[in-house]
Amino acid sequence: MCAASLEEYCGSVFWNASYVEREDPNLPVCVEQTVLVWIPLGFLWLCSPWNLMSLCRRSRANTKHRTKLYLCKQIVVLLLFLTAIGGLIVTLLEDFGPNSSGEKISAVYYTNPVLFTVTWILVLLCQEGVRRKERAVDSASLFLFWLLLVLCDIFTFQTLLREALKQTQGNVRDVPRFFLFYTSFGLEVIALILSALADIPPEAKELVKKNPEAGAVFLSRITFHWFN
């Protein structure tokens, strides 16, 4: 996709060297809405088959190891799913709502919420797949996905913050998207932290207490080998 197509897709300039050469360098919004979105999402979609394989096996699903940490991870992703739906609703209201200005809404404001909606469903499935493998640590691909997502969103974080500070009396130009982004960013940081924590099943803790040697072997089996 060439720069001209991306500019039409975003409704703004894709790249201009002056953005990074000024005193307060920043990336163009179009880059933040495309490249910095596609990098983490593309990484997740490429790596997801390894986490989804356990869902395709016919072995009986393990329903006992739904720990508090696992439930917290799923709740955070569900909240992110709702923010993506909220972003799509905001765009639909701007385009077809009673207060519509009649201006054409850029395609990126439709596609990005849809991409994130589908991605959060995929993350829910991946986290369930990791749980069924009975491992204490999260999948390396999921952890790297959250890390990439947070790092890429830092650029949008500072862009929106700078725009808000430049506005007279601190007024935010696009309040709904401003609120949705910072809510999503906070949830992504929480998800990254949760992904870095070990999730040891209660049975394993009991086994360690009763038989330390057997428990140590069991913990080593569920803790290591992220990509297995």
What would your notes on this structure say?
It is found in: Membrane. The protein is mainly α and 228 residues long. 71% of the residues lie in helices and 0% in strands. Helix 4 packs antiparallel against helix 7. The radius of gyration is 21 Å and the shape is elongated. The C terminus is likely disordered.
Offer a few descriptive terms.
228 residues; mainly alpha; disordered C terminus; membrane; ABC transporter TMD0 domain-containing protein; transmembrane
Q: Quick one: how many beta strands?
A: 0
User: In which range does the helix fraction lie?
Assistant: over 70%
Biggest pleated-sheet summary = none
Order of helices and strands: HHHHHHHHHH
Q: Report strand %.
A: under 5%
Chain-wise SSE layout:
Elements: H1 3-10, H2 18-21, H3 29-33, H4 35-56, H5 68-96, H6 108-132, H7 140-166, H8 175-195, H9 202-210, H10 212-223
Compact description:
This protein is mainly alpha-helical. Helix content is 71%, strand content 0%. The protein starts with a helix and ends in a 5-residue tail after the last helix.
